[in-house]
Design brief:
With 210 residues, the chain is mainly alpha-helical. The protein has one domain: Hypothetical protein af1432. It is built from ten helices and no strands. It binds nickel (II) ion.
């Protein structure tokens, strides 16, 4: 089933240019398996949820979330039991970042691992690259010194924000290292976080030259 799911997901996201392409899924699957094996999670469940975690993402589809129609359809197509389907759907629903002031604590070790893997792929060098790709996809300015970052207290505010790519570092990326669940992921985040701080320092130094 996992191979079939991987093939279908690869096909569905092959034309993505928002930073949620197949290689993002591939990296999250590998990170999740790596973290999951050290944290004693159920690896086939972790892998299944990681593969399907962005198929119904609000940033990319107009689906009204919660029941995750795309992920659910694939699980049913490849013969997942009702129990497995619900377990995976619950994990995916718990994974997404919903705003700086919105608490999204997962309820199972498998959901913690997939959330950590997805968040690690949003920081560091790859996180920076994906953030600029996503900003372009959303027609956002790269940076505007007059536009200040906002820490959103509701999921609705976060979804409807008008912002810049540089602001997104303060609204999400720099907050992620303190929102990780597992010890393994926290260790992996340290260097990635430092790299983003160095990037911003250099960015402002170049921006403010006169
Ligand atoms: Ni993702």
């Amino acid at each position: 089933m996992i191979n079939n799911l991987a093939r279908s997901v690869k096909e569905l996201c092959q034309h993505d240019s928002s930073g949620h392409d197949w290689w993002h899924i591939h990296r999250v699957v590998n990170l999740a398996k790596n973290i999951g094996s050290k944290e004693g999670a159920d690896l086939p469940i972790v892998e299944t949820a990681a593969l399907l975690h962005d198929l119904d993402d609000w940033k990319l589809t107009s689906n009204n979330q919660e029941n995750l129609p795309n992920a659910r359809a694939l699980l049913i197509e490849y013969g997942a039991t009702a129990e497995l389907t619900e377990r995976v759907i619950t994990i995916i629903n718990e994974v997404s970042f919903k705003g700086a002031g919105v608490d999204t604590k997962p309820t199972s070790i498998e959901a913690m691992v997939v959330q950590d893997a997805d968040r690690l792929d949003a920081i560091g060098a790859i996180g920076i690259a994906r953030t600029f790709a996503y900003g372009g996809y959303k027609n956002q300015p790269m940076h505007n010194p007059n536009l200040k970052p906002a820490l959103h207290n509701s999921y609705e505010d976060y979804k409807s924000m008008r912002t810049s790519t540089i602001n997104h570092f303060y609204e999400k990326l720099l907050l992620l290292k303190d929102r990780l669940n597992t010890k393994t992921a926290i260790e992996l985040a340290i260097q990635r976080h430092r790299f983003m701080e160095q990037f911003l320092e250099q960015f402002y130094a170049e921006w403010n030259i006169d």
